[in-house]
Amino acid sequence: MAQSVTQLTAYLHGLRVGWFRQRDGVISFDFDEEWRETSGRLQLSESLPKSRRVHAGTAPESFLWGLLPDNSAVLVRWGEMFGANPRNALSLLRHVGLDTAGAVQLSEADDTVLEAAGGSDPLDDHVIAAHLRAMHGDPLAWLVPSLHDGNFSLAGAQAKFALLRDADGWRLPWGGEPTTHIVKPGVAGFSHQDVDEHLCLAAAAQLGLTAAKSEMHDFDGETAIVVERYDREIANGRIERIHQEDVLQAAGIHPALKYQNDGGPGITTAAAIVRAAVNRSERDDAVSRFFEANVFNWIISGTDAHAKNYSLLHTTRGTTLAPLYDVASSLPYDDLPARKVKLAMSMAGRYRVHEIEPRHILREAAGIALDTDAVRERMVELCQSVADAFSAAASASALGADDREFAARLTDSVARRSAELLPKIDATTVRSLGAHIRPEARAITQPRRKNVGLSGNGGRFASKQPST
């Protein structure tokens, strides 16, 4: 029988932030008054601002669902494993809430400081390989079997699990001990998808975008992409959590609506959220990086760049845009009809990749007050360099013969795609686009100032909107 849970306490860095409470099926959030007064610029969520002590409505529950897998079959499996209600976020997070995305930890305890015992046990590669083999046959088997309560929660639909890696190798954390790496065997039904994701991230970094670090790892004959968690750091010899939330959580929207055509944020809305959240000195750079990532996905035909795959990092120093993650190209898969492939966020109202032209990219850029000349130049630069970036990424990766053959196919398909796009970009004349800016874009567009070149590893477009 599913256990009834009506309250979980939220902690950040071990300090009590407040309480998620459920009454008559409705979840609300109440801030701890002391944390509100002493937390500085640290935020739990942009959708749960500290300016209001109590939050009702849909935002608290949407934030919680954003911490869980958005794979209903996995949630049903977890419900069976834990005796929890798979349709109740509090019921599930009671069992997996001590290690989630970011720094938030959820517990039935209610002390001002979280006392969550934890530790980790060594794992041999053959144990990890056995789990990867099990996941190939059963993609719902996210949790690594263990004698301890070594449970975690990772968002998203793709099969994955979390481990800790230190100087001595791989370990399985339990209790409140943080994980440091995410292991993904690839999406079922798409051969070499793990290689695809790794090379896309590595190529993005080669091109100057800020992207999560990844590697292809061989676990006793089973290969998988291993992604280093950017929401973890080593401080004073200890693994510390860095708080993050995805843009969908920041918008207060349920993950079932993550795609724009399902009701999730598009580029204009997501850019406005980023601009409002990020530190004043970094806003232009963050919006530029966000849009550049969308351009990169357009070039490589990356179809999963929805609002859950962009995140904000919250610290006591303020908020920044997280590195790019969960990127993969549809180009090497011949069984995906090119004319039906869609982006997760539209460009000037168009989703199908083959229908999106450079002028639509420029129109979308104008809608979020970016310099269209700089955007056009960066599109040319990316198209000229992207195939070499994939080639360099493949050369620097530990790939077996089959994976290397796939990498060559991916690189060739990216080269063909970029070669097709370059003449179209060169033929594009930047015109006055003001008449095409949608009303929601005008709401965030302010009087222009002299263009300011953006710094940082990724921001390339001079913003025409001042920071406020």
Characterization of the model:
- A hairpin with a 2-residue loop joins strand 12 (232-235) and strand 13.
- The chain is of the alpha+beta class and 468 residues long.
- The strands form 5 sheets. Strands 6-8-7-9-11-10 form a 6-stranded antiparallel sheet. The chain has a 5-stranded antiparallel sheet with strand order 4-3-2-1-5.
- Helix 6 (193-206) crosses helix 11 (372-395), helix 8 packs antiparallel against helix 9 and helix 11 packs antiparallel against helix 12 (401-426).
- The protein is built from 13 helices and 18 strands.
Please provide a brief summary of the model.
Helix content is 34%, strand content 20%. The chain is built from 13 helices and 18 strands. It has helices at 33-38, 59-65, 72-82, 89-96, 125-137, 193-206, 247-251, 267-277, 283-300, 358-367, 372-395, 401-426, 439-442, and strands spanning 7-12, 15-23, 26-31, 54-55, 104-107, 118-122, 161-166, 169-175, 181-184, 214-219, 222-228, 232-235, 238-241, 243-246, 311-315, 318-321, 342-347, 350-352.
Ranges where pLDDT stays below 50 over 5 or more residues in a row are 430-458
Q: What spatial order of strands do you see in the largest sheet? A: 6-8-7-9-11-10
Helix content: 25-40%
Q: Please give the number of β-strands.
A: 18
Q: Count of helices?
A: 13
Q: What's the multimeric state?
A: single chain
Report mean pLDDT, rounded to a whole number.
88
From the spread of the alpha carbons, the general shape counts as globular
Please give the radius of gyration in angstroms. 22 Å
Profile the largest sheet.
Answer: 6 strands, antiparallel
